[in-house]
Amino acid sequence: MSNEKLVAKNSKAIHPRRVSISKMEKSCQEVSDLLRSLSHPQRLMILGYLTQGPKSVSELGGLCDISQSQLSQFLGRMKAENLLKSERQGKYQYYAIADQRLIQLIAVIQNIFCR
Amino acid sequence: MSNEKLVAKNSKAIHPRRVSISKMEKSCQEVSDLLRSLSHPQRLMILGYLTQGPKSVSELGGLCDISQSQLSQFLGRMKAENLLKSERQGKYQYYAIADQRLIQLIAVIQNIFCR
DNA sequence: TTGACATATTATTATTTTATAATATGATAA
DNA sequence: TTATCATATTATAAAATAATAATATGTCAA
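Above: the input entities. Below: the structure tokens describing the complete assembly.
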């Protein structure tokens, strides 16, 4: 059960050091809330698309197989959770990832699980 | 907040290498299921503790503030999802992380979000 | 064996999430 | 202005999850 091999094998860029459990205890509620936002296949895809840059709701609608209503609800929810920010430009509402850490996290998830 | 500003701010800052969206489309259900298991503060903590090595149910019970029943249910659930494996030793049932990728992921989460 | 401890299971209720439909608002172009 | 497109909101029903209590099972030591 040692993870030395893992640490050696995976770039230090990805996980430079180990964090104490007490730090985790303090933030586990916040972190688990964030992870819950990623725990739906379409929301995960939306965030994946948004790591490539801001997109309007209709662009996202073209990319994701999801109803207009649910897409808007998901975007609104993730904005309320401060994962996303949005800006209207004319008819279109552009959404973008608001928290850089989320971009990091999604990139790591892709690298670990989407091979 | 203009579109261009968002783009400049978000893209290509961090990620070491990028995975194609089509890979993500294929695995998003599996990945989001996994992330759902991490989307509860006590389950996240349980996994955090288990990254440090196998632990018996009662050891985990001493570490987490959670009822016996719920702890057992959470462990059973994560075992059914193949995140955990278990082995009985006498009176004690030892649980351990079954998927090395999960250890990686939790380490990354700690490094990004538990500072 | 019995009793005590460790863990699992079942049942149940409350809460949250998901999905869908219907309707509303806001912007633009004709 | 009105029609149309883009997006948001509301309502609601179904499904999943969380939390708790009660009970069952399995192991060991006396």
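Note for the figure: The helical segments of chain B are 3-10, 21-37, 41-50, 57-63, 68-80, 100-113.
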